[in-house]
Amino acid sequence: MFRFANPEYLYALLLIPAFIVVWLLTLFAYRKRMKRFGERKLVHGLVEEYSRKRYITKFALMTSALAMIVLMMARPQFGMQTTKDTKKGIEAIFVVDVSNSMLARDVQPSRLEKAKILATTIIDRMQNDKVGLIVFAGEAYPQLPITNDLVSARMFLDAITTDMVSIQGTNLAAAISLANNSFTANKRVGKAIVVITDGENHEENALEAAKEAADDNRNVYVLGIGSTEGSPIPQGDGPMTDNNGQVVVTALNEEICKQVAKEGNGKYIHVDNSNNALQQLQNEIDKLQHDTAITAYDTYNEQFIAFAILALFFIVAEFLIFETKNPFYRKFRLFTK
């Protein structure tokens, strides 16, 4: 099937008859002026190597080149081909601990800021994926429903603070259950729950929640952030103290983090001041990539190149032909017998 993708450009072909009319009028006026000097053949004979055929040929070549350019702009198409576009992607929900212990600075600049940097970097590398955001401490709250708007995800992530949840604690069970119920119904994509926490003061039932998520084909990855040696929690007037005036030291509870990741069919990753955790998490997310959509669509084969070649040929030919006979080409005699 032959067609033009931009047929509106074909109206420009109407300029060609107009050019021909103008050219003929100019030629008529030229001949009329020449009669004032004498017989036309005699006057032309005085012009060395004059060729009326060359003059007409040059105009015909330029007119043909113009026609080819117009046809090329109209994008002639002939024949069709089927193209398949395959997209890969996952759904990932980041579950960020915002309890006061996340203010500890055993990981620079702090546990919470490190968690935000890590999650933001992962989101920056995503393309066809969807992300969601949940914050939790003693309770869990959705911060951003699952979406493919990665720009908004980065904005919401950057706005996370420890003031978002007033009830202190580390309710992993509530956070994982909320994340498990926040995915779309699409079963063709890999789904990941990325929990970033220090695991301290955790509530019960976290293992059961992780097992339930795994049964629903969700992979639970736990990023344990902080040091097992512990660190004080900085506040405006100094480190946090308990009722006895003793400095509160918060330490990473790796044991619960590893157990939750195991029950959730995921992986435990320790987050320290290096970038090792980032690469490990990226590798795990890459394993979940599946073909989310295979779109097949038909496209027409473009044929404008042939018209472009013809236009170039006509332009070059017109450039090489002079209105008078060139001594260099005299021996070829293309326009005279």
From TrEMBL:
PROSITE patterns: VWFA. Residues 91-285 form the VWFA domain. The keyword Acetylation does not apply. The keyword Cell membrane applies. Keywords: Cell membrane, Membrane, Transmembrane, Transmembrane helix. The chain crosses the membrane at residues 12-30, 55-74, 304-322. It holds the Pfam family VWA_2. Signal peptide: none annotated. This is VWA domain-containing protein. It comes from Pseudoprevotella muciniphila.
